[in-house]
Write a structure and sequence with these properties.
The protein has 301 residues and is of the alpha/beta class. The chain has twelve helices and ten strands. Helix 7 packs across helix 8 and helix 10 crosses helix 11.
Length: 301
């Protein structure tokens, strides 16, 4: 059984007025760069909607104008108040078809909209996804990382201490990790990932689907050093990090040797325990106790 929405045909795809849409909230994915990366169904929905709710009307106007679409627009973003959200849903309840778009890609994927969708469902209103472009999936598909299990972690915290704590929570996840990051924080963020994740392979995807699209891959320490040297890149970024390699239990003498090397090199007990725990996969508390014992023995001698 097909859903109740217009089937794309020559009339609706050619720019003429399409059939009216059923009342509801339509979550419409839009291009992340190349304006041709939009589905025919998305164009039909944008033409047939009563209203397009968008993150920034100036950005969405460029897309609609490119395809000769004159549907009315209104701003809706994470800072919109409850009155704006209620007003949009009241329109849907009264029979309108409202299309929700973000500036680029699939709404709600690190973009505004979940409060609107959640409230629409709570009110029993129709919510229909119109799938399409996503920077997360575009980067993942071309990164060469395992895709049977992945975890999208959004933007890491901006400050290093909080960022390392957040990364540490993800360090044992047996999945490919996908992050978004700003250009000015990329080098520092990669350095923190290297400190927490070690030498895992990663890929930095830049300007996806745009003229200067670029993929750079390598061990996290090498990527961090590269962007520290060349400076902040331009454009939108996605970072894909390989999952941790399968580990075998480290022998106690191996752990002690690693800890001694770090302590003799001037590392604190805490830093040595953190690094060796990450490298061996052993519980941090157990490694910390070993490091503390070695430090005391060294001090006593």
């Amino acid at each position: 059984m097909t859903k109740d929405h217009p089937t794309p045909d020559k009339k609706s795809s050619g720019g003429a007025a399409p059939e009216p849409l059923s009342p509801g909230l339509y979550i419409v994915a839009t291009p992340i760069g190349n304006l041709r990366d939009i589905t025919l169904r998305a164009l039909d929905v944008l033409r047939g909607a009563s209203l397009v709710a968008c993150e920034d009307t100036r950005t969405t106007r460029t897309l609609l104008s490119h395809y000769g679409i004159n549907t009315a627009m209104t701003a809706y973003h994470d800072h919109s108040d409850d009155k704006r959200r209620d007003a949009l849903l009241d329109k849907v309840a009264d029979g309108a078809a409202v299309a929700l778009v973000s500036d680029a890609g699939t709404p709600l994927i690190s973009d505004p909209g979940y409060k609107l969708v959640r409230e629409a469902r709570a009110r029993g209103l129709r919510v229909e996804p119109i799938p399409g472009p996503s920077s997360v999936l575009a980067a993942l598909s071309a990164a060469g990382a395992p895709t049977d299990r992945f975890l999208f972690a959004g933007f890491p915290p901006p400050k290093s201490k909080a960022r390392r704590e957040a990364l540490a929570e993800l360090s044992e996840a047996r999945a490919t990790l996908v992050f978004l990051e700003s250009p000015k924080r990329l080098a520092a963020s990669l350095a923190d990932m290297a400190a927490v994740f070690g030498g895992r392979r990663a890929v930095v995807a830049r300007e996806l689907t745009k003229l200067y699209e670029e993929f750079r891959d390598g061990p996290l320490p090498d990527l961090a050093a590269h962007y520290e040297e060349v400076g902040a890149p331009k454009g939108e970024l996605v970072v894909v990090v390989d999952p941790p390699a399968a580990r075998t239990a480290a022998a106690p003498e191996e752990v002690d040797a690693l800890l001694r090397d770090m302590l003799n090199g001037g590392a604190s007990v805490r830093d040595a325990a953190d690094t060796v725990s990450t490298a061996t996969g052993l519980p941090r508390r157990k490694v910390y106790q070993a490091a503390l014992a070695l430090a005391k023995a060294k001090g006593g001698s």
